[in-house]
Amino acid sequence: MDAQSSPESALAIGRRAADELAEALAMAGCKLPSLSGGFPVMGRPHVELGGASADAVFALARWIRERA
Q1: Does any domain span residue 16?
Q2: How far, in Å, CA of 31 to CA of 40, rounded?
């Protein structure tokens, strides 16, 4: 996805990116409760990854390692 060439606003792109990541993480059995599309930073789309429990992060790390 090329955020620079999209007609969407930077805020909308950030929100959509966060939604797509949340869906992908859910497939891995993980959830980052504070994941959200943030306000643009220097005019570019931005995603707030937020916080997560240590259990969720360990599960995500394990899932990534199994597929790397």
Answers
A1: yes
A2: 23
Q: Report the sign of the C-alpha dihedral through residues 51, 53, 57, 59, in that order.
A: negative
Which pTM was predicted?
0.76
Q: How many domains does the chain have?
A: 1
Domain range for 35 is 10-67
- 60/46 Cα distance (integer angstroms): 21
Q: Whole-angstrom Cα distance, residue 59 to residue 56? A: 5
Tens place of pLDDT for every residue, the chain, 68 residues? 555 556 689 999 999 999 999 999 888 888 888 999 999 999 899 999 888 888 888 988 998 899 98
